[in-house]
Amino acid sequence: MDSETEDNVVTDGEDQVATSLPTTTPLVAVPLMAMVNMPSLYSQCDMGDLQNLYPFSSEVDIPEEIELPVEEVNGLSLMSDDDFANRGINNIARGRKGNPKVGADRKNHFSPGGAGGNDGGGGDPDVNNLTLESVGGLDDHIAFIRQSVMYPLKHQEAMQEWGVEPPKGIMFHGSPGTGKTLLAKAIGNEISKLTGKQVTFYYHKGSESFSKYVGESEANLRRLFAKAVATKPSIIFFDEIDGLCPNRERSANICHAYVGVVTAMLGLIDSVKRGDVLIIGATNRLADVDPAIRRPGRFDKVLFFPLPDEAGRKNIITIHTSQWLSDKPTGEFLTVLAKKTVGFTGADLKKLCTDTVQNAFTRNGDGKTIHVTEDDWATAFSQMNKSSTAVFGSSVYVADHVPPLLLPLFSAEMATLLPKLDLFLPDGQLAKTPGAGKLLNGPSSFLVWDSILVDDRYQLGLLMQNVLTHPRLSKYSTYILDVPTLAKLQASRRNVTITKLVGDLIGQIEQSESPCVLYIPQINKLYQTLFAVINQRKGKEENHQIPVFISQLKSIRGNKLILATWEGQMTNVFPQVKSLFNLEHGIYKLQKTGDAERRAFFKQLAPFSGKNEGPTENKRKKKGNNQNGSEAFNRLLEEIVEKTGGDPMRWVVNLFVNLSNRIDKKEDKNLITDLRNYLDRL
Ligand SMILES: Nc1ncnc2c1ncn2[C@@H]1O[C@H](COP(=O)(O)OP(=O)(O)OP(=O)(O)O)[C@@H](O)[C@H]1O
Ligand SMILES: [Mg+2]
């Protein structure tokens, strides 16, 4: 624990505060922050700043249970049968062949009053022509729909003769903007095109037709089902079904009206004959839907809508640019776009495409010769970051690669850390070993820590960049949970509490089926911050609430890794935070750099040691490094290796970041002299 008594670190018993960074002034030519793209903004976002960063709302005591859309319920006017028909059943596409209404008011049907929902800002341009091909990246779901919905509807009698039972209900669930409503609309359209069969499609939006008058909503539902049976075969699509049938077990405050609706719904689903009426439900969170509704026999099939993978993103971008008259992204550029959009939902991708073309229009003021350029895409990307609404999507984290010149410093550290971490990776050793014993009892979580709080922009930050960009980890989507991200999210969703944001993010990760990494820089500080926020107004004597995100994290299982960091003494880590990690295997403490690594790094300075710079230096570079070892340089090299030894790695990294940046910028004229002066002062 030598390093804990460093001069530049003051330990105040509670936490540690870095008073200054090591002096590297003679070498600093450019501000440090400009050089390295830092993985975390913690250093800029201390507890004290937080209040300025975003005003936490006063209602911090949010129960972790689901919140009922009370305003919606109260705010809804009494609906007469006609109203209901207009807002509910009439929102329904009548796919009945030959019905003159089909097509004429299809748009209305499929964009029910534009009411809520993530429909990507105004719905799809060509709603009438939506087909299953308009839905990208969901090939398996589409195949299932064709096989289990379309085919049985078309060949109902034959299927019955063969005793094949179609599903009674299908539940769509997944993050906002992943195409649930889109797929349902496409099914509605496709069904109306089915030849020789008249199928009615009813669209019903969550709490929209919910009436505050006891019994009214149930009556409405009964009418809807009766109509669906009368016009069989038919499909009822309950969009945002959690608004109508919330989980009765998860909330004690659930109002009676909902309980009645859930009970009615259960009876109604059971009463309809399989094959006559197919019920499709859609929700963001499966857990928010009453479990009795979800039970097999009612919703036989549950389809999860993941965030699109690279191929899916290509497909969706292609769909949303298919109507462009020119400059559609193809080939390599499409691949670049798909790679840059990790974590984007279908709705995000649609917005990106729309913004891009709008940027092209804005640039070409005359509106005649429109050309979409890469700059238009780049501008759209910058607009995206500000406006992305999905919690999950906004938390996507893409680590920057560590500057190559710095890599030698991390080689030994990576060699030790990676095998330890591998144990916990979604496809790592533990996952492959059935019944791997005690380790499996906890969540897959791993902590990288350093005993000194200096500034995670340096060693810890760079190491984490290196880890997250390593091929073992970079193949997983990474999400970040930290104060700056929460601050950004809260700024865009002002009426949502911080506790709910954290809960939403963790919930979405928990429900996601794809393997992923949840990166939590400075986890102890996050805990401390959330504690402060939820207990903001309380005095010392009052009972304090404990942030629940740790127990939420513990419910994350399976193919996800929680990768956290902490800078400071272990004794300062809150017990709850500690309890997340297996302190024997799931933890790694930062090391000092070895002589060999520092030597390898400094050797890269050799081309700058010659007296003649410019062409000679370039020649030397081309020839390889065999001319590097001038006597003087070798002596300097050994001296610097020795003088930087014994120091914790962090300030060495600081020095190296400066040096490597100067090398990159070719500001080499005085580099060696500066280094010499620097060493002499040590
Ligand atoms: N898989 C996809 N393929 C093509 N476009 C998509 C896809 N997913 C989303 N989009 C675009 O985003 C818009 C919004 O998606 P949609 O309304 O279907 O999301 P959702 O999953 O129903 O979200 P919410 O849970 O908020 O209701 C769609 O109208 C479409 O333009
Ligand atoms: Mg929807």
Structural summary, described in words:
With 682 residues, the chain is of the alpha/beta class. It has 3 domains: 215 residues, Rossmann fold (3-Layer(aba) Sandwich); 215 residues, Rossmann fold; 76 residues, Helicase, Ruva Protein, domain 3. The protein contains 31 helices and 12 strands. The strands form 3 sheets. Strands 4-5-6-3-7 form a 5-stranded parallel sheet. A 5-stranded parallel sheet has the order 9-10-11-8-12, sandwiched between helices. β1 and β2 form a beta hairpin. α13 packs across α15. The longest helix has 18 residues. It is globular. The two termini are 22 Å apart. Bound molecules: adenosine-5'-triphosphate and magnesium ion (MG). The site of adenosine-5'-triphosphate has 24 residues, from α9, α13 and α15.
How would you sum up this structure in a few lines?
The chain has 682 residues and is of the alpha/beta class. It is built from 31 helices and twelve strands.
CATH topology (fold) name of the largest domain: Rossmann fold
Overall CATH class of the largest domain:
Alpha Beta
Shape: globular
Strand order of the largest sheet: 4-5-6-3-7
Q: How confident overall, as mean pLDDT?
A: 70
Number of domains: 3
Determine the strand fraction and express it as a percent band.
Answer: 5-15%
DSSP strand tally:
12
> Count of helices?
31
* Percent helix: 40-55%
Largest sheet: 5 strands, parallel
Could you list the spans in which at least 5 consecutive residues all have pLDDT below 50? 1-125, 611-626
